[in-house]
Model the fold of this input.
Amino acid sequence: MSRVTALPVGDDALLVEVASGAQARALHAELLRRRAEGSLTVREIVPAARTVLLDGLADPARLASELASCEAPATPPHAREPVELPVRYDGPDLAEVAAHWRVPVREVVRIHTNTEFTVAFCGFAPGFGYLTGLPARYDVPRRVTPRTAVPAGAVALAGPYTGVYPRSSPGGWQVIGTTEAVLWDHARVPAALLSPGTRVRFTPVGDA
Amino acid sequence: MTDRALVVVRAGALTTVQDRGRPGYAHLGVPRSGALDPRAAALVNRLAGNPVDAAVLETTVNGCALRPRSTVTVAVGGAPCPVTVAGRPAAWGAPVVVPAGALLEVGTAVAGLRAYVAVSGGIAVEPVLGSRSRDLLSGLGPAPLTDGAVLSLGAPGGPPARVDAVPQPGPPAELVLRVTMGPRDDWFTAGALRALTTRAYRVSPASNRIGLRTEGPALERARGGELPSEGMVLGAVQVPPDGRPVVFLADHPTTGGYPVVAVVRAADLPAAAQAVPGTPVRFVAVRRR
Done:
């Protein structure tokens, strides 16, 4: 258990900082619960790596002092069933990731598909989730030279995160595979397949 | 002919459809977007007899030219600019009737950057997540206008405002941005914080709907390392590695990894939307309300 720090941001927002990603997820879930029960009125609740931003608060100072006196919730509540994303592990950086991990390529696929991921937060593009779940020893650096176009559906790694590109865009992450799942469709409800707190499993398809 | 539509005769440098944006989706990575000068957008809507949240056109520098297929009331505001209807001078900042088939010309801004054009009934493109705004960071919403495009119009609401002209703030000769410090001011040296609030900055030509970039003294960090990504707010003064502050505007990314040294008061952002490159910028530290 540890304390939370609430930093004022402008006149009507608070950046609530905690010690770990797991605590940020727990805090995010707790704040969503408060909003749902009506005890928290706020325009945006934006989780990130170690923080949750509350934007559009009527009285940020009061909430800040209230949060300062409470402990961060320790464990995130259990989310719904994981979303399964079928992946063809044929990415151009698969061999490089295997080299970073010091394992054969086949082992990268096994480790990746045996890991349960959680969407820590979204950003970069609508529907792009930053998924955590891999142990720290599997962190990988970004590519030295980013690609000018990474295709939609690319499954890629950077730092502690796995991400899936919702649409084609420039990107510096290490691409290990491709999914045909539609990550973002603004005509669909909900538009985003993955949102903060969603659990994700990658399942292998085809020859890896 | 009762075809409620507008033909885009000249799209201009960058003309987009904007309303009040799509707040509430930042946690999915969706920027709020919306008119960069929301006061001007609301005013032209009132003048044209629209609700304040109707979709308008936001032009950049050199206006646009439109031909309505049915008679409409329009109002042009924001950046002052010449307005003509069928070649004759018409009022800026007041309701103007444009007969069916007549050409409405919104000319090059004589000051400021962005003119707003409200048309009775509002621009009726398909909304995305509750908004018709074009978000230039993520590409949501209707594409920027192109020559020859046709835009549908909604049914006119109320009558146009009964005024000759209304006062609108002129574009700033000097852009004064009141800031509250933090949340990451502790990432910068005392000298950098002093520089931000005492030295002269200028609006960079690289500014856009995502951010107002500045030229001026680089802000020196007090610590190395990287900040884990965190949520960003409108008006955040983010400092990338080159040390030049960037003020986040409507299409800003929802999360970011560069430290935010201060946040600009929302009331000062409409002026930022109208500040042409080269405009002097002064950041003034104020107490949090």
Residues 74 and 96 of chain B are 5 Å apart (CA to CA).
